[in-house]
Write a structure and sequence with these properties.
Blueprint (H helix, E strand, L loop, with lengths): L2 E7 L6 E7 L2 E8 L5 E4 L5 H4 L11 E11 L5 E13 L2 E14 L1 H5 L5 E4 L8 E2 L6 H5 L7 E7 L2 E7 L8 E8 L8 E4 L1 E4 L2 E3 L3 E5 L6 E3 L1 H8 L6 E3 L4 E5 L7 E5 L3 E5 L1 H4 E4 L6 E4 L1 E3 L7 E3 L1 H4 L2 E6 L7 E6 L1
Parallel strand pairs: 3-8, 4-7, 16-25, 17-24
Antiparallel strand pairs: 1-2, 1-11, 2-3, 2-6, 4-8, 5-6, 5-9, 6-7, 10-11, 10-26, 12-27, 13-16, 14-15, 14-20, 17-25, 18-19, 19-23, 20-21, 22-23, 26-27
The chain binds 4-bromo-N'-(3,4-dihydro-2H-pyrrol-5-yl)benzohydrazide.
The site of 4-bromo-N'-(3,4-dihydro-2H-pyrrol-5-yl)benzohydrazide has 15 residues, from loops.
Length: 327
């Protein structure tokens, strides 16, 4: 049995939300290949923080005694609470004894997010933050039902896309799928590009990073980022806006990763114009920004992933790998 779930972008493609049914309640969760916990808003939160969200009724649920969780994300946001076992359905696929982490506390970033009802982690289960015993991700729990141990993402700019579980949909991409090995030792979908290019300017330095659906932008080392925006007239690193901004009518340089020897994975310049900074200025915020101090690796987030049909392959032919094809 395989499954497909439709995922829909919030404003400015800030995040993509996917319906998940837990028990008999449907939550809209942020699927995150950069973490490995499934957590939801719950009745253990202060009432005002529950407002406007689907809420997990812990009083009707099966507690995992003595278990708790606490997670810190790369953007500094955090959440924590206790743990239950429940039936979780995504795209027609069912995990009967899924660890559902009920949020009892949320950081301000989540309190500000009016739409997401929680996260569903799709990184490797070694990253799960439940104590005293790590729990398995939804993907690990349904893997044995799937034809292939794969998740394939089709995230789009300003339009609904899909998460395919267990199969690769040839109708969703053009040209070949190019695969690159993944190093899962830190629990992320980490891969290395042999080189990269800004437009025609090839830079033969390797770039290692993670494929992360839970991060909005592409986050690179600060000197690399300043080198990119040197090509964009009128671009400046603005403390006021928290990163590089430029005139919205700028023609942005494409960003290309060279993987598997000689295959180019290109993000068109248009996708690197992330969003206007406000309603009056004609300044736009860049889709490539510097990684913060908290993060010691490059992050290929949604701005990157939107240009590709991406196969997160947990080992259909040996080790974990990522497949990229144009969409
Ligand atoms: O937290 C991470 N990705 N997911 C999410 N971000 C914000 C909410 C969800 C993340 C993971 C690894 C590294 Br390295 C940096 C960041």
């Amino acid at each position: 049995l395989n499954g497909t779930a439709v995922t829909s972008p919030e404003a400015n493609d800030l995040e993509y939300l996917t319906p998940v049914t837990i028990g008999n309640v449907t939550f809209h969760l942020d699927f995150d290949t950069g973490s490995a916990d499934l957590w939801v808003y719950s009745d253990e939160l202060p009432t005002d923080e529950q407002t406007g969200h689907a809420v997990y009724a812990t009083t009707d649920s099966k507690l995992l005694p003595g278990s708790s969780w606490e997670i810190l994300y790369g953007d500094g946001s955090s959440a924590g609470g206790d743990v239950f076992a429940d039936t979780v359905v995504v795209g027609g696929l069912t995990a009967t004894m899924q660890a559902v982490e009920a949020a009892a506390t949320l950081s301000a970033e989540f309190e500000r997010d009016a739409h997401s009802d929680g996260l569903l982690g799709l990184a490797f289960s070694t990253l799960n933050m439940v104590k005293p015993q790590k729990q398995s991700t939804f993907f690990d729990n349904v893997k044995s039902q799937l034809d292939l141990p794969v998740i394939a993402t089709s995230l789009k700019h300003g339009a609904p896309g899909t998460y395919d579980f267990g199969f690769i949909d040839e109708n969703k991409y053009t040209g070949p799928l190019t695969y690159v090995d993944v190093d899962s030792s830190r629990g992320y979908w980490t891969f290395t590009a042999d080189a990269y290019a800004f437009g025609d300017d090839q830079i033969s330095t390797s770039l290692t990073g993670i494929a992360d659906t839970g991060t909005t932008l592409i986050l690179l080392p600060s000197d690399t980022v300043s080198r990119y925006y040197a090509n964009v007239s009128g671009a400046q690193d603005s403390p006021l806006h928290g990163g590089y901004v430029f005139p919205c009518d700028s023609k942005l340089t494409p960003f290309t990763l060279v993987v598997a020897g000689n295959h180019s994975v290109t993000v068109p310049g248009e996708l690197i114009n992330y969003a206007p900074v406000g309603s009056v200025s004609n300044l736009c915020f860049g889709g490539i920004q510097a990684a913060s101090g908290l993060v010691d690796i490059n992050i290929f987030g949604d701005v990157f992933l939107k240009s590709q049909y991406v196969v997160f392959d947990a080992g259909s032919q040996g080790g974990p790998r990522l497949g990229f094809a144009n969409q």
